Amino acid sequence: MQVDGESPLFVISVAAELAGMHPQTLRQYDRMGLVSPKRTAGKSRRYSMRDVAQLREIQQLSSEGVSLEGIRRVLGLENEVNELRARVRELERALADEMLNRPGRRVFAAGAEGEVVTLRTGTRVRRENAVVVWRPLERG
Predict the structure, then answer these.
(1) pTM greater than 0.85 (yes/no)
(2) 1-101 CATH pick, 2.120.10.30, 1.20.1730.10, 1.10.1660.10, 3.40.430.10
(3) Which of 73, 75, 91, 127 registers the highest number of CB atoms within 10 A of its CB?
(4) What residue ranges in 1-140 does DSSP mark as E strands?
(5) Which chain positions lie within coiled-coil regions (predicted)?
């Protein structure tokens, strides 16, 4: 078994001690969906290091006066940002692969709905407010 930050390692009492909380608080956060640990076949909770870090973040936000609903929103937005960053990295890799596999220069423009439109070299965009992104291939 490979152990990483997502591996379910800690029983509730250990996770509570690591986070500086009471085990009942962890149960409440699980019911609320703030931190949802993995479950064993016997349905007992197992917390990962990521879960413990999230519990500490909840504790910090709570001590700063943020309500539990506010904390839920903050955590949701953080998760969304992480997913969007991963998607951007994925798209950047795909674009880099595309540029490496195509000969010559490529010109892209943003379409009316925000989509990426490929233009032929030498083609001008008609709308004045369109954004054109261009990067010549490096010759080595």
Answers:
(1) no
(2) 1.10.1660.10
(3) 75
(4) 38-39, 45-46, 107-110, 116-119, 132-134
(5) 74-101
